[in-house]
Fold this protein.
Amino acid sequence: MSKGPPFFISIKYAYIQRKCDIAHACAKNIAAFLAKHRNGVYLSPHRPPGGMRVAARVSAKAGDLRTDIPFPSSIMIKQIALILATLILTCSSSAAAPSWDIPQKVSQGRAFEVRITDTSPFRGNILWNGSSYPVPSSPYGGVHEARILLAMPIDAAKPMRAAADLSSGGLAASVTPLPVDWPRQILSVAPKYVSPPKKVLKRIERDRKLSREAIGTVTERGYWELPLHRPVPGTVSSVFGGRRVFNGQPRSPHLGTDLRGQAGTPVEAVASGTVVAASELYFSGNTIYIDHGQGVISMYCHLSSIGVRKGEFVGRGQVIGKVGATVRVTGPHLHSALYVGRIPVDILPLFEPVPSPVGGPSKEQPRN
Ligand SMILES: [Zn+2]
């Protein structure tokens, strides 16, 4: 047996596409791969019917201290590869590899949580809908995890690709949108809010810019947690996604949920975060935007008063303002909205103890 410098083996990520037993041939293949390449992505060549396929990023290099398994010869490489390959297969999800829980199907206009876990700390980005979101991991229950909220656009028609580019490996998945039969809503409001007079057009443009910037905020640390806190106790008076007709004219869909509340009812933050805008807007009246991190932004409209300032950090459940009936509304209520990666989503399912990525249009049973 030749004695060279000590080698250490490290398997950076691995995943199993099918549950099965490992054949010794596969361990030998990994050993042969390591002897030839020293590191890289090993992909098992066979996938027998009902059988297995192993994919692993493997490396064997001098002085790599990721694992404490020194081996001096190719015979040892074979033995260690066999042990590690067996390990990968017997504890597929707890192997040193990132894995994620991501739904395969999501209804239009719904947010869904993605949880990534690994045995060691990781960082990187999630790519979704043309944007990138940072996902630093933190220790949780013996593993390291990162959670992120993503959203299916209200008009999504084709499967969308999600990818994770992480320090410990890569992940990819396809998420299929489920169509929702959005309701039609016919409403009457003051004419100036359907066809605004010329003199306010500049103001409306300014408001739009403010909203775009608020909704487009992406900060690294996520403060949101599911379920979200209900901002007012009142029931739903108008659901998310309704195709709206104002005074006989079709307008953009209802991109929030209206919750009943007497004027003056305290409005509470759905999650902790930083106030990114708090001002009076032409269409939505007194409005607050809160950044909850990772592209998750909540919005509160038609307030009779605003109790926070831009830049202020607020806690989950903290009172931020009061219910009102400012501008384009038919009576006092809270227009409660959530944007996830700039995508407006139905906030109502996120108040449920276990939010579902599938369903809609939202309905809520009347409560006492
Ligand atoms: Zn509304």
In short: The longest strand covers residues 296-306.
